[in-house]
Specification:
binds adenosine-5'-triphosphate, alpha/beta, 50% helix, five-stranded parallel β-sheet, 7 strands, binds magnesium ion, single chain, 302 residues
């Protein structure tokens, strides 16, 4: 809607986990390197956790691109609310197993022979499960058993479990002890800090065709980081709404008032801590907005 107005060739803050817009922050770089290393060195289980909207699915998309480029076969389950039967059926579809896909025994036999063939040809196979915090215990147990399949060169099936922080907590439970012991690599994602948030926003806008953007001032970028806690999905949503508001007001500069309106519309909750207020002296006071007063003055000061 606003692309032509700002000079974008495409939407900079699309909500889809598109690797074309990947911002290589240190933590995302490390997570992706871990996923790739884990697969290549046949580590078996790899766990990727993180707050909602921090980029887990985006990392998995990047991994899938890598696996495709290396012609490594993989199954990718994105709906983790499955029964054991559905799990095996989905697995057999994804790996294109030629057998009665409704029979767990047949699926297991076929999978085993395919994994053996591939392993003896020096190739590995990957199972990616997103939203793994939703997996039922009995499905997780089947996954653990699949992770046991190995030959002398290492695990034959590399299993990547990605999910929200409940996944970490779930794996701490006594009944998951065996699985927890088998996790060879773990990585975690969190929100961006101020510098990363600014670099992330600038990189997305540059990727969409607007280099050296002046829509968001440095102080506004800081405020976006604070209100979003650096969570990429929230940053995208805030920036998209800000651009839309600025467009509607026919200006190419977003303001703190617009940010107040956008975050109120989003019902965004963020800490309104006293320490932060003290950090930025509030002049002049705007009593109706406890948080806004310091931030307004900061933006106006620039
Ligand atoms: N490193 C990154 N580079 C570019 N965009 C990113 C990055 N990390 C996250 N995003 C963007 O943030 C949004 C949320 O990312 P994603 O869906 O991958 O998060 P998630 O951790 O899987 O969330 P959920 O917990 O809800 O499944 C997406 O629009 C994605 O494009
Ligand atoms: Mg996700």
């Amino acid at each position: 809607m606003y692309n032509a107005f700002f000079g974008f060739t495409q939407n900079p803050f699309n909500m889809s986990p598109d690797p074309a817009f990947l911002f290589r922050s240190a933590q995302h770089e490390e997570a992706l390197a871990n996923l790739i290393y884990g697969v290549q060195s046949r580590k078996g289980f790899i766990v990727l956790t993180g707050e909602v909207g921090t980029g887990k699915t985006t990392m998995l998309e990047c991994l899938r691109d890598f696996l495709n480029s290396q012609q490594i076969a993989f199954a990718s389950l994105f709906n983790s609310r499955l029964t054991v039967d559905q799990f095996f059926e989905m697995l057999s579809y994804d790996l294109d197993l030629r057998c009665n896909r409704r029979s767990k025994t047949e699926v297991l036999l076929t999978l085993n022979s395919i994994l053996l063939d591939r392993a003896s040809a020096g190739r590995t196979t990957v199972l990616i499960v997103d939203e793994a915090h939703n997996l039922d215990w009995d499905v997780l147990e089947e996954i653990r058993l699949l992770g046991n399949l190995e030959n002398r060169r290492g695990k034959m099936l590399q299993i990547i479990l990605a999910g929200q922080q409940e996944l970490d907590r779930k794996l701490e439970a006594p009944e998951f002890r065996q699985l927890k012991q088998r996790i060879a690599l773990r990585c975690a994602l969190k929100g961006f800090d101020r510098e990363e948030t600014a670099a992330y926003i600038n990189s997305r806008m540059a990727r969409a065709g607007l280099r050296d953007q002046a829509v968001f001032s440095p102080a506004l970028l800081d405020e976006i980081q604070f209100r979003s806690q650096g969570i990429p999905r929230l940053i995208n949503s805030i920036c998209d709404n800000l651009l839309l508001t600025a467009f509607a007001m026919e200006t190419r500069k977003a303001t703190l008032e617009m940010l107040d309106e956008v975050t109120a519309d989003m019902r965004l909750e963020y800490p309104k801590d006293g320490a932060r207020e003290a950090h930025f002296p509030a002049t002049p006071p705007f009593p109706e907005r406890a948080l806004g007063e310091t931030a307004v003055s900061r933006v106006r000061r620039l």
